[in-house]
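Curious: why these numbers?
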Amino acid sequence: MSEATHESTLLSRAGELFFRPGKVIITFFEHLGRYMGTIGWMLYNFRNARDYSGNILQQMVTIGNNSVPIVLFVSMFVGMVTAVQSSYQLYDWIPRSVVGALVTKSVLLELTPLLTALVLAGKVGATITAELGTMRVTEQIDALEALAFDPISFLITPRVLAGIFMFPILVILGDFVAILGGMFGASAIAGIPTEAFVDGMKSSFETWDAGFGIIKATVFGFIITSVSCYQGFQVQGGSEGVGNATMNTVVITCLSVVVMDFILASVLL
């Protein structure tokens, strides 16, 4: 191999090394700009949402009511596991009532809002993306535009509003069931009297803890529904594109929820 050919090969490899990260960065900011544009259009034409109030109620049922069983199931076992692990880590000289305090704080501040959001990112987010993606590849969204409908106000705004309204309600239900699960786990498995658990729960409860969890649920609801709507709205490439967009939705929403969880905790606590 000549020296010129060798230098050309090295330059080609170096160019490829920088090209791939650069392409990823450019693609990221391109999608971020489109996403912000979609949110901006939704907010600018927010008044049009009242014309589709029936869609909002329908999405509240789909996102909220249909998600209650899985949220309650997850919350129950989250509370039980937290109680059992908390009791396991306590020393003999630490009061048993501390378990009630740990379960209450952990459930209200972190576990229920975060795990509920991660579960619903897979259930609600994937469903929304698949619905809108199918409408895109079958040209139903194009038909709405041809009929002078605003597809963002008709399809995206109701889903985002439903997520903002219903996620906090689901988290409140999850908090209640998780604390009951923690009480059951502490009593039946760890042998901690119910009275001691309740005393610890009362001593540690603060209104801000519950309010902070609701704030997180509201933000998570907006992130999951808006990202999933955007992914479905931008689908290309037929059924394969729908599958790829659904997968991207689950990954992006889960990562976004975790990052936003850290940001909210850093700013508000």
Remarks:
- The chain is about 85% helix and 0% strand.
- The CA atoms of residues 175 and 225 lie 22 Å apart.
